[in-house]
């Protein structure tokens, strides 16, 4: 379709299923977030039954131009394609981010033990301190890397720090859930506790 999403690393392994996070490493690939529906060539008055096109930018220039001609409602078809690709990309990125948070959460849980923010008996001020410390690391990363590294390197560092912030917040949420859910419901999968 003009946009070639590549996969950079496995994010979550669950029963032989590997979920990967799309990246745009191939030259000429166009982020679906930039895709727009516009009247196609020869459809200057934007007739509904005229030619419609999907355009996408890679920088300042349009790197994607795809016309929809052979359809009963070309504009609707083009809009459906754009919405589908944008939705798929958002879901893939969110799944990748959440899987990274899950991995960091499990790693931290093993390290933090008693001071794990998921501990329902740990006082909130300690949990807040852990969260603020992680947020401070994001700020330090921005301050340190702004003029010393390129965008790609800064993004990598920020992604790691933001993953730690999110994992700490999730741990705190788990601690709140542990207090809200009656003890008899803690059998089985903890992720099913709210649904049972």
Describe this structure in words.
- There is one protein chain.
- A three-stranded antiparallel β-sheet has the order 3-4-5, with helices on one face. Strands 1-2 form a two-stranded antiparallel sheet.
- It is of the alpha+beta class.
- Helix 1 crosses helix 3 and helix 2 packs antiparallel against helix 3.
Give a quick set of tags describing it.
5 strands, 3-stranded antiparallel sheet, elongated, two-stranded antiparallel sheet, 3 helices, disordered N terminus, 196 residues, 46% helix, alpha+beta, 18% strand
- Find the count of extended strands (DSSP E, 2+ residues): 5
Percent range for β-strand residues = 15-25%
Mean pLDDT: 78
Largest sheet: 3 strands, antiparallel
> What is the helix content?
40-55%
Q: Shape, please?
A: elongated
| SSE string, helices as H and strands as E | EEEEEHHH
Structural topology:
Layout: E1 6-14, E2 17-23, E3 36-39, E4 52-58, E5 61-68, H1 74-112, H2 124-145, H3 151-180
Concise account of the structure shown:
The chain has 196 residues and is of the alpha+beta class.
